[in-house]
Write a structure and sequence with these properties.
Elements (H helix, E strand, L loop, with lengths): L3 E2 L2 H9 L5 E6 L4 H16 L5 E6 L4 H6 L7 E6 L2 E7 L4 H12 L1
Parallel strand pairs: 1-3, 2-3
Antiparallel strand pairs: 2-4, 4-5
């Protein structure tokens, strides 16, 4: 299940009102580390088919969301559960570290 691109108009329905946890990849087209991290997000999204939703948000096109979560550096990964920010990770991490971070924060 691949990560889907979400914009400000879809954020509430796709992320805040999701009935499953959501991993949010905050990124930008010009960001080198973001481009390196994107395949990792895609791989990990396949491991959670249907249990966790994965979305991508371009911070340049969705400044209100980036501002709401005080995104100062990208890539930043958010974990949102029941509409609430549960955890934040700044920077690209290897696949196994991302999975451990998700598992730890989902309890």
């Amino acid at each position: 299940m691949a990560a889907i691109e979400v914009n400000e108009d879809q954020f509430e329905s796709e992320v805040l009102k999701s009935d499953i946890p959501v991993v949010v990849d905050m990124w930008a087209v010009w960001c080198g580390p973001c481009r390196m991290y994107s395949p990792i997000i895609e791989e990990v999204s396949n491991d959670y088919g249907g249990k966790v939703k994965f979305v991508k948000i371009d911070v340049d096109k969705n400044e209100a969301i980036a501002s709401k979560y005080n995104i100062m550096s990208i890539p930043t990964t958010l974990l949102i559960v029941n509409g609430t920010l549960k955890a934040m990770n700044i920077g690209a991490v290897p696949r196994e570290i991302l999975k451990k971070w998700i598992e730890k924060n989902l309890g």
